[in-house]
Amino acid sequence: MARSRIGLVLIAVVLPMALLCSSCGSPSSASAATTFSKSSIKGNYAMSFAVAVGGEPISYAGGTGVIVSDGNGNLSGSESFSDTDGTVCTDATISGTYTVNPNGTGTINISLTSSEPGCTESFIESLAIASGGSLVKTTNLDPNVAQLSGDWTRQ
């Protein structure tokens, strides 16, 4: 009889607690997926990149800069870069636009202008937003350019 009472007590106490905590630690079905927009990328970003440009021989380039995003799809800033062909560009002006899809991907259209020879160009990149917009990963969409890395980090 003592065993049956202990069993009933365990059922009476443990079962309700188990049911109460059945959702403890599990994601809520009401939590919504993160939706991104142009405003997910807003502010000043430190930027760096490294690329390999196809051809014979392959040329490599890398650089750093600062990009300012207004949160409405417009970019401005400056960058400096060099390549293995001997081109050195300091303080090229960045202007451009970007789009953002709800899943955090998008595209960037960039124009670089400079008075230095060989430093004016335009290109398109894909982007992926990470860390709530504090980090933007990029890659060049030109089939002759293999972007080895491209990151923007919010300052």
Describe this structure in words.
With 155 residues, the chain is mainly β. The chain has one domain: Beta Barrel (Lipocalin), CATH 2.40.128. Helix content is 12%, strand content 53%. It has one helix and eight strands; from the N terminus they run H-E-E-E-E-E-E-E-E. An eight-stranded antiparallel β-barrel has the order 1-2-3-4-5-6-7-8. It is globular and about 45 Å long. 19% of the residues are buried. Residues 2-24 and 26-31 have low confidence and may be disordered.
Write the layout of secondary structure elements.
Layout: H1 2-20, E1 42-53, E2 59-70, E3 74-83, E4 88-100, E5 105-113, E6 121-130, E7 135-140, E8 145-154
Antiparallel strand pairs: 1-2, 1-8, 2-3, 3-4, 4-5, 5-6, 6-7, 7-8
The CATH class is Mainly Beta
Order of helices and strands: HEEEEEEEE
User: Would you give the CATH topology?
Assistant: Lipocalin
Number of strands: 8
Question: How far apart are the first and last residues' alpha carbons, in Å?
Answer: 70 Å
Mean pLDDT metric: 83
- The best one-word shape is globular
> What integer value in Å does the Rg equal?
26 Å
Q: Biggest β-sheet: count, sense, barrel?
A: 8 strands, antiparallel, barrel
Known CATH architecture? Beta Barrel
Measured by DSSP, the beta-strand proportion falls in: over 45%
Going across the biggest sheet, name each strand in turn: 1-2-3-4-5-6-7-8
> What number of structural domains do the residues give?
1
**Low-confidence spans:** 2-24, 26-31
State the oligomer: single chain
- Determine the structural class based on helices, strands and strand pairing: mainly beta
Share of helix, binned: 10-25%
Question: How many individual helices?
Answer: 1
